[in-house]
Amino acid sequence: xxxxxxxxxxxxxxxxxxxxxxxxxxxxxxxxxxxxxxxxxxxxxxxxxxxxxxxxxxxxxxxxxxxxxxxxxxxxxxxxxxxxxxxxxxxxxxxxxxxxxxxxxxxxxxxxxxxxxxxxxxxxxxxxxxxxxxxxxxxxxxxxxxxxxxxxxxxxxxxxxxxxxxxxxxxxxxxxxxxxxxxxxxxxxxxxxxxxxxxxxxxxxxxxxxxxxxxxxxxxxxxxxxxxxxxxxxxxxxxxxxxxxxxxxxxxxxxxxxxxxxxxxxxxxxxxxxxxxxxxxxxxxxxxxxxxxxxxxxxxxxxxxxxxxxxxxxxxxxxxxxxxxxxxxxxxxxxxxxxxxxxxxxxxxxxxxxxxxxxxxxxxxxxxxxx
Length: 371
Description:
- By secondary structure, the protein is mainly alpha-helical.
- It has 15 helices and no strands.
- The protein folds into 2 domains: about 1-235, Up-down Bundle (Rhopdopsin 7-helix transmembrane proteins); about 255-370, Orthogonal Bundle (Arc Repressor Mutant, subunit A).
- The chain has helices at about 1-30, 35-50, 60-85, 95-120, 130-165, 170-195, 205-225, 230-235, 255-270, 280-285, 290-300, 305-325, 335-340, 345-355, 360-370.
- Residues about 240-250 have low confidence and may be disordered.
- GO terms for molecular function: DNA-binding transcription factor activity; sequence-specific DNA binding.
């Protein structure tokens, strides 16, 4: 009884905190994709706090099943939130919605049809013995499959964190974003493992209470972490590069200006952006300064939030000049892309269109027609 009371109290506190967080995020950053996804993730987490039960296999009402399904689909929202948080140029696509719907429908099907039918069979209904065993097997397989899907999307979110870590130039976001994703991924992963390992167990009351305590701690820690960082660092007002442009916002110093000039010489004269696998560390070593200082310089003095965007702008500028040059009209686009520093045609096409609004081929044709 005591454990159940503690469990309910923890769940209630967690849901209240998540609802407040969702409202705050939507009101403050509802115009930004990452902000909207963060609010949606908070609401989905509230649904999870209400419905999460480890080792429980009793039937649920249709309304409860729907909340469980929405809670399961929240892992897709978590993955999309990680994408939007770490990639300022990320955009939602129609197939993202289809993935979310598929996960929700899969969970809802299990809650409303497969699991209840299997439970009826175990209670001596008219189902034949073979049918009962088949239903129980299907229920277990689907249950494990759903939790493996959860683990898979968590892995994708963590992979996004790792892949984009080195190119992030915003110091505040670099610190807090890894904490947010790591904490959420740790809880989600442990919850999925417990669900699989304790499914059908009769002694899961302690596990449920510990799970609720862990969820409450994670939510509280994430909320505190988000309050300690400037919201503009996590949720930029627009995905484009934003230059401060204000002398009051940037402390002018001759040392910084010399570093900026040296960096621009590396770009313009040496064309270092053409080199394979050029990194922040590469440039910092050439300039003889620590990485953190170069990150701050590119972010605060030049207005870039992402190192790859900084490199790509120089690469695209060279590619635009080559595509507009009549003497290079017969040079393949892939050759121009690789000469400018891109490793393949796909990333070049995406980066080029993001900056110019047209594909490289269209840009070349427009320039040719303008002559």
